[in-house]
Amino acid sequence: MEPAARPAVVIDNGTGYSKLGFSGNSEPSFTIPTVVAVNESFLDQSETCSSANWIAQYNAGVMADLDFFIGDEALSHFRSSGLYSLKKPIHHGQVDDWDTMERYWQQCIFNYLRCNPEEHYFLLTDSPVSTPESRECTGEIMFETFNVPGLYISVQSVLSLSAGYAFLKSLSDENSDSMSDMTGVVVDIGDGAPHVVPVVNGYVIGSSIKSFPFSGSDVTQFVLQLLQERGELIPPEDSLDIARKVKEMYCYTSSDIVKEFKKHDKNPDKYVKQWSSIKPKTGVPYTIDIGYERFLGPEIFFHPEIYSADFSTPLPELIDSCVQSAPIDTRRALYKNIVLSGGTTMFKDFHKRLQNDIKKIVDDRVAATNARHHVEVKPVEVNVVTHPIQSYAVWFGGSVAASNPEFYESCHTKEEYEEHGASICRTSTVFKGMY
């Protein structure tokens, strides 16, 4: 069977988690942490062996290449054994350790997806601020190491927008042109490197991209900090994992932080939750109370100064600034389609708070313009799009794109790579089938 007749492999590598699966599916087959556990003892042995004992040196090097784990298995081996160290190939949304990234892809393809890479086209995702050189490295590994027949590297923000449209189409009987107009602002907040990215007709406006310094991992750290400051006794070896679970299970976005404090103080029994577990080292059970942390965690996106004095621009203002820096004839369309992506945008009522705050900023500007120039400017529609697949929107967008026949025509092929080199991977065309 020809590779183009098989479903494409879709891999979305994020700072915290990676999503793996095949095109045409509605959700990824696997969602695993983007970490690798390597056995340092073999690496040390390889380095300390004398050059004369080349056989021992070679064997140690081979074992170092073989003895590693990824995802949850990596975390498990790291916790249970002192032989393994953890490596994260991606920081702030960009690959900075290509050897580890290659190992990670190897396990993803052979141990998780269990497919022959020579028989499938591949769609990989990339950060909107990634460099052309980074895409070249990706192409080299895919074509040289895994010998893939075809590769498409897509910007994550475009796929998020595509996922939003695909989801809306599934709920709508209409097939209007506006549904396929790939214009909007993507607010992508995962475990690392949140970005606000304007997309017009499927193309990213690079000069208008805005970065927000705090991500889901910062919410986790802030929740942990608040619990510790309040005197909750959390086992140090389990602290980050507990804070992450508290964040995912109990945190929500308040509409007014002052009113929320008053509600908690007035009726603590209703709002305070309890977390019970067992200390991993001693086996002793313990319980902690979760109070203000429930709404203060997500509040760093609206009042970032409560977490760090180094940054004070709220996320709604950053989104407004992003739109205002885009071409003037695209701004109304951008405000009308603000799409959320990433697991950190899944907090309860997050989209409502974001929409209300952006709407207030925009309405105040319109009112000021009307008063200053004595004109009647048409109100600006602000719409924040939310859907159940936000946590894996990028992957789903890739699945939709790669299931279209035009995808295979838009891929860079092995033959093109051999003829022109890795530079062909610097750009990928946007095709109609993406939306």
From TrEMBL:
Keywords: Actin-binding, ATP-binding, Cytoplasm, Cytoskeleton, Nucleotide-binding. GO terms for cellular component: cytoskeleton. GO terms for molecular function: actin binding; ATP binding. It is found in: Cytoplasm, Cytoskeleton. The keyword Nucleotide-binding applies. The keyword Heme does not apply. Pfam families: Actin. InterPro entries: Actin. Its main location: cytoplasm. Belongs to the actin family. ARP3 subfamily. This is Actin-related protein 3. It comes from Zizania palustris (Northern wild rice).
